[in-house]
Amino acid sequence: MTLDAGAAGDERRAVAQLHLILGPVGAGKSTYARTLCAEHRAVALILDDWMARLFGADIRPETGRVAWYLERRDRVFEQIWQLTRQLVAVDTCVVLEVGLIRRMEREAFYRRVEDAGLGLTIHLLDADREVRRERVLRRNQEKDVVQVVPLEFFEMASDLWEPPDDIELSARDVRVR
To answer: How many angstroms separate the CA atoms of 174 and 124, rounded?
Structure first.
């Protein structure tokens, strides 16, 4: 949370900050979200947690799995966005980990944030693909895992990951971890 000078310049009020965590599958985003929440007294909204809770028990179709997933992901993202707006409106910092592995998705998100007049800090995490694959396989074996990530999904999502380029990095408050 940051302090913002009031109209007279001497009053200060808390201004909630929005933190967006970016990175490929297995980079440690959900773990890092807990650290940020503790540092900023923030609420974490993590897409995978919502997807697992809402759709984890659902039977996936034999064909069209990607479309099935994307339709649900988009609905959950809209709900997370509405909740984010409500939390920031009551001066609560929010940590978002919502995928956004493609540059086009991130640009659309940045426009939303700007249109809403919100402050945004981006936290970029990454690791070598082999390290990430091992993390995901290890996490899949844990008994309290939120969502199992099948190896084929890991590979597909890793192939789709578009790291921010210099233009995206220079235009925003980005912290590389």
So the answer is: 7
So where are the chain's domains?
A: 2-176
Closest of 19, 11, 52 to residue 125, by C-alpha? 19
Give the model confidence (pLDDT) of 87-118 as tens digits: 999 999 999 999 999 999 999 999 999 999 99
pTM of the predicted protein model: 0.87
CB 55 within 8 A of CB 16: no
Question: Is residue 52 a contact partner of residue 30, using CB atoms and an 8 Å limit?
Answer: no
For the segment 23-64, what is each residue's pLDDT rounded down to a tens digit?
Answer: 999 999 999 999 999 999 999 999 999 998 999 888 878 888
- The class (CATH top level) of 2-176 is alpha beta
State how far the Cα of 95 lies from the Cα of 123, in Å rounded to an integer: 10
Instruction: Give the residue from 76, 95, 92, 131 showing the smallest Cα distance to 20.
Output: 95
